[in-house]
Amino acid sequence: MKNKLKLLFYILIIVLISIIAFVGVYTSKTQFRDNALPKYSLSSEFTGKRITYLQVDDSTSDVIKDKDGNVVDSIPEDANKDDYTTEKVPVNSEEVLNSDNYRKIKEILDNRLGQFGTEYYLVKVDDQTGDIVVELEENNSTDTLLQSAVQKGDFSIVDSETKEVLLDRSHIAKAAVVYGNNETGAVVVYLQITFDEEGKEKFAEITRNYVETEETEDSEDSESEEDHKHVSIIFSGTTMLTTGFESEITNGELTLSMGTATSNSALYQYISNASIYSVLLNNPEFPITYKVTTSEYINSNINQNIIYFAIGAIAVICAIVVIYLIAKYKTNGLICSLGIVLEIAILLLLIRYTSTVISLGTLSALLVLVLLEAYCIIKILNKIKENNSYENVANVTIKTYLDMIDLIVVFLIIAIVFTFMKEVAIYSIGMTLFYGIISIAITNLIFVRGMLLAKYNTKND
Amino acid sequence: MKKRLIVLVIALVIIIAGLVMIFTKGLNLGDEYGKYTMINIYMTDPSNIEDVRQIADEVIDGDFTVSYTDEFNDTASIKVKSITDEQVSSLKEKLKAKYSFEDVDNNVIAINVPGANLYDLVKVYIAPIVVALALSLIYFVIAFRKLGIVKALFTPLITVVGIVALYISIIAIFRIAITEYLIPIGILLFILTLLGNAIYLRSQK
């Protein structure tokens, strides 16, 4: 009687877990009945993606020259306008518009998006026209990533007055994000730009020439014009900063403060911004200027019918396995069939609670897990068939696992390698396999073993 | 032994035929990853997509798809393999008449989407597959060293590479369009073959 109750208890638990996993737990905290379980996280394959279309910028810009042929920003108000000429110059010259440069831009975009840590991206380029289409996953950071990735990425240190280029990005050896603490203990995030040997010397000279002298009352009148000289740091055509230097810098490192963080969210924000700059500086600049023509969120091609078809296919495979188990192993087969249902139920709960992203690959992983569990159960049932003693039934699960050790090791190798990849299409498979092996272990070591023992004891009571 | 040889020969023939197809005709990138034209229609209010479909049907000869691009149902997107400039102009005129667009060039934008590079589609899978395969092979060599290096190393290596090559060859020979579904199926075959090898070598031990 006790063992019958035990068996019933296991079955009830399995039914309960299965209902929770497959149907949900509905509460009515609001006027609507909501599922209290965390929602599944779906990859962009199921939801949709951002498709951005970039075209070569065919516009022109005005170039103003004075009578000596020097390029100036604008015509001074009090100047004679006849002394200046304005030319319309294409933003991209004819020479740069070629297939090699189009392909180079695709490569730069690929590298930038990869180094930003984008989970899904695809860059397509038309070698003839230079048209580029960028596909990205849609999330809160998509706009920032996109805006950053398509920047030209030019960098220069110029004289703030004369606009003379003092140092350009050809001398950058590397850029990195570094941290430090200020006197109050707050974390300061820096972008550290290291120059090559030649750049190091040039930068030292710049910092020597643009040292800010401290203003004192005595020196105020006698302060020379050079004391006020500043440099502008230009990035992607925008002035990041106009500043002087406190002293000469001889180590070839330009350290720019990106912000002082007083909270974790601020720290994350500053690190993200600094990382974007460092990625852009560590990759070459675009040889061509592009413009964004359109940027649209496009719904997924995968409709509900396809998802139902895939789930249906897995359900059919489960059903075939269950029928086979019941037909061949009778009651023991029926008991173990519940194990397959439970394994999927536990896996789905783990996927929900660990926010594992579901991609198309997840469905493949699910199928692998169903087959693995079926193989495991068949081995367990065969062992029981060979020797139906209490001792054998009690230890059969462990023995089966020991028999399958090679399979489990290879399985874990695949799961772990895939889990540590950064692309969602890969790590979603790895994580599903990993949680799957946990759910199979829980199912077989606790429930299948428990039910088989209870059934054995009931028979021998 | 004879049966095994026949299977092996058939598999080799398929792989060679597949390689010939790939080098001569390439793979069929299909609608998803091949070149196509996307025509975005920015409507001022949520509209019935069937009206857009009907207009597109009047203008476009070949196959096309129409879908909303957002949840507000005010932007539709027509995806078509090839369309002439005249057809785009005609489409714009009809859409202008239907939706009273003031500036149709702003409301209807045609974009030529270039085809994807096949390497871009598969490159993210190469590293994990190679690493997982290499680690598994190292494990096989250690765990099944008594079976000999040929069996422990080359049997799994040849079967995994063979199955993946067979899969790609079938896709190439039957001109199956590359879609997002094909790669997960390939991954499934890779995992199952590797696990199958673990079972086979264990049984041999």
Shape of chain A: elongated
Output the number of helix runs of chain B. 8
| Number of DSSP strand runs of chain A | 18
Give the biggest sheet of chain A. Answer: 4 strands, antiparallel
| Percent of sequence in beta strands of chain A | 15-25%
Rg of chain A (CA only): 33 Å
Fold and architecture overview:
The complex is a heterodimer of chains A (461) and B (205). Chain A has helices spanning 2-22, 44-47, 99-115, 142-149, 197-209, 264-282, 304-353, 360-386, 390-403, 405-419, 424-460, and strands at residues 26-27, 34-35, 41-42, 48-56, 60-65, 71-72, 85-90, 121-125, 132-137, 155-159, 165-168, 172-181, 187-195, 231-235, 238-243, 253-261, 290-299, 357-358. Chain A is an alpha+beta fold and 461 residues long. Among the domains of chain A are: 2-37 and 303-460, Up-down Bundle (Multidrug efflux transporter AcrB transmembrane fold); 153-214 and 226-285, Gyrase A, domain 2 (2-Layer Sandwich). Chain A has a four-stranded antiparallel β-sheet with strand order 8-9-4-17. Chain A has a four-stranded antiparallel β-sheet with strand order 11-10-14-15, covered by helices on one side. In chain A, a hairpin with a 6-residue loop joins strand 1 (26-27) and strand 2. The longest helix of chain A is centred in the last third of the chain and has 50 residues, at 304-353. Chain B has 205 residues and is of the alpha+beta class. Chain B folds into two domains: 2-28 and 117-204, no CATH class; 35-113, Alpha-Beta Plaits, CATH 3.30.70. Chain B is 64% helix and 12% strand. Chain B contains eight helices and four strands; from the N terminus they run H-H-E-H-E-E-H-H-E-H-H-H. Chain B has helices at 2-24, 30-33, 49-59, 85-99, 104-107, 118-143, 149-173, 182-204; strands at 36-42, 64-68, 75-80, 108-113. A four-stranded antiparallel β-sheet of chain B has the order 2-3-1-4. Chain B is elongated, with a radius of gyration of 25 Å. The two termini of chain B are 20 Å apart. The mean pLDDT of chain B is 89. The chains are: A alpha+beta (461), B alpha+beta (205). Chains A and B meet through strand 8, strand 17, helix 8, helix 10 and helix 11 of A and strand 4, helix 6 and helix 8 of B.
